[in-house]
Amino acid sequence: MNGLVDFTVLTQILTLTQNTKIQVKRTIDIDEVEAMNTYFPYHSVTLFDSTDDWLLAILSGQLGIVTSEGFAFTIDVRSYPGRQPEEPDNEKVIRGSRDGFTENILQNTALIRRRIRDVSLRFELTQISTRGKTDTVIAFIKGIANEEHIEYLRTRMKKINHDGLTMTDKSLEEMLFKQKFHPVPFVRYTERADTCAAHLLEGHIAIIVDTSPSVILVPITLFHHLQHAEEYRQAPLLGTIVRLTRFTGFLLCLMLLPFWYLLIKEPEHLPQAISFIGPKETGNVPIFAQIIIADIGLVYLRLAAIHTPTPLSTAMGLVSAIIIGQIAIDVGLFIPEVVLYSAIAAILTFSLPSTELGGAAKIFMNFLLIATAAFGSNGFFVGLFLLFMYFVSIKPMGVPYLWPLVPFFPIALSRLIIRYPTTNGALRPFITNSPNRSRS
Q1: pLDDT tens per residue, range 188-221
Q2: Which residues of 71-88 are buried (b: 16+ CB within 10 A; e: fewer)?
């Protein structure tokens, strides 16, 4: 298959074969693999007894050979096109490694193996989908990962009957965990090899899909989406402050805009100390409509930033954020506070390390806003209660999504909130159900 084969290696093999003077005596008892190894002194020669498997190997980039006796072989001389490992754009750190996963599944497994040199590290390869035959790897450390979780993934993968994984890891997530219309992510994605290796050592399982630079990590909870590698590149105290700031940012992302709207909708609940909050002039457009319009405008601004070429994105951002926002205030479409709090809510959303959780937080924020606009303070607090119950009800792979908050594990919760020093020995997370929880 042109484009998937390393022709330099292939030429060297054929040249070496032409110069070989060894004659192999053909007898009925001769081992065909031994004969092929004599003709082709290469490290990866495989004999096939299935036409479909042989054709699949060729379509994957291997060299196919059929002998006059009817034996079918492949020689692995694959060389997939792709980029070199580089730092992911959405998981950058100030200090730390700059290599990240690529679209090459072999390269990704090598990046993990480089960090975990353990004979118990396993990579189970399988092909998923009937036509695409996408290579998928289940990575885990035997003796640390829970066997029931591994068997669960094996069973669900065998049940997948689809023609192709066009969106690779995202398609696989929806098929494995039946996500349907749930807004929250059931898995954690990472493009950093060090993050993936750290989770494997904790007893988690990684799923690597060929042609995708993201690796799926399971099982996870809500708090896994609020962690970042930068916390472990700083001193424990600084890492704890950054982590607390991120947790606070997630709560503010959910409640800041709805709570501000509640205070201006029911000003009798506004304390005297913060009586300055609230619009001095309401304008011609209702405040709730202003918030919705501003939120929709920010969504379009985000889409425009994604699709705008990089040299023009800065200019587009300045025009949209400064000029249009100021003109909208001058003409009376918005009051200044709506622009302020809408912008703060957007910044808090972008501050979350997980883009999937950021999108879900925006949906939940709008749900609280609508409940507050419809029912006032009762709607706000009932909406918070319903969101809490929704998070409690989610249990991907049987793991409570709010663990260790619900069910309450105080020691585990303290380790989530506080970034303890590495020298402080910690057990592997309870949710991984590891047979060996001690890490020391």
Answers
A1: 999 999 999 999 999 999 999 999 999 999 999 9
A2: ebbbbbbbebeeeebeeb
- Tell me: do 305 and 381 sit in the same domain: yes
What percentage of residues in the chain have a pLDDT greater than 90?
Answer: 45
Prediction pTM value? 0.86
Question: Based on the domain organization, do 183 and 238 belong to the same domain?
Answer: no
pLDDT for res 272: 78
pLDDT at 282: 67
Question: How many C-beta neighbours within 10 Å does residue 275 have?
Answer: 9
For residue 263, give its domain range.
232-398
Total domains, the chain: 3
Cα 319 versus chain centre, distance: 32
What integer pLDDT is reported at residue 188 of this predicted model? 95
268 inside domain: yes
Give the lowest-confidence range in 237-251, 280-294, 401-415: 280-294
Q: How far apart are CA 26 and CA 302, in angstroms?
A: 69
Is 340 found in the same domain as 260?
yes
Cβ neighbours for 399, distance < 8 A, ≥ 6 positions apart: 219, 220, 221, 431
**C-beta of residue 263 within 8 angstroms of C-beta of residue 377:** no
Helix axes 169-177, 147-158, angle to 10 degrees: 100
pLDDT value of residue 109:
95
Residues 6+ apart with CB under 8 A from 239: 230, 231, 232, 233, 419
Question: What does the alpha-carbon distance between residue 271 and residue 55 come to, in Å, rounded to a whole number?
Answer: 74
